[in-house]
Amino acid sequence: MEHHSDLITTRKADLRAQARALLGQAGPERTSAWGLAMAETLTKSELWKQAGVVFCFVSTSREPSTRPLLELALAQGKTLCVPRTGPEGFMEAVPITGLEQLAPARFGLLEPAPGLPALDPGQLDLVIAPCLMAAPDGLRLGQGGGYYDRFLPRCRCPVVLLCPAALVERELPTEAHDRRADFVLTEQGFLSEG
């Protein structure tokens, strides 16, 4: 059995390297264009319209930009929660009232200050999560820290992955702790299985 999990670990490492290379070459214009297209599709959906409490990751320069979603959630009066990471893969959902409440944290991420209180993940209506790659069935390949694998089971709402179309893989290696998302959104729209 040990051998099988080694193969999965190696395959995941290879796919992560491939995804990081593609994202590294994308540049800010493409990541911004991806983010705008994804935001346009998502904000027209019932998922978005019905969500009062939205959790959305704060993108880095190598991810589809979530700035349009963050700004729109605030402008529409939704409760906007963003991730704050802790030790050992622990992550919490912290409500913010403005993007100026974000400050540089570890891994080069922008996060809310340690003093701001977190919300129970069970109170979220919608989770917008990052990935390096996604499969059409909602399986995600993350950065490898396990933050979302630990966080998502505590949520009782739909999870949408933002994934550039070039990084959608028909099949991804999976382990028991990997959590599927409900929807995969690319710059071309929502993927439906099949």
Automatic annotation (TrEMBL):
InterPro entries the UniProt entry points to: FTHF_cligase, FTHF_cligase-like_sf, NagB/RpiA_transferase-like
Keywords: ATP-binding, Ligase, Magnesium, Metal-binding, Nucleotide-binding
Known catalytic reactions: (6S)-5-formyl-5,6,7,8-tetrahydrofolate + ATP = (6R)-5,10-methenyltetrahydrofolate + ADP + phosphate
Domain of life: Bacteria
Enzyme kind, highest EC tier: ligase
Assigned EC number: 6.3.3.2
Designated name of the protein: 5-formyltetrahydrofolate cyclo-ligase
Protein source organism: Allofournierella massiliensis
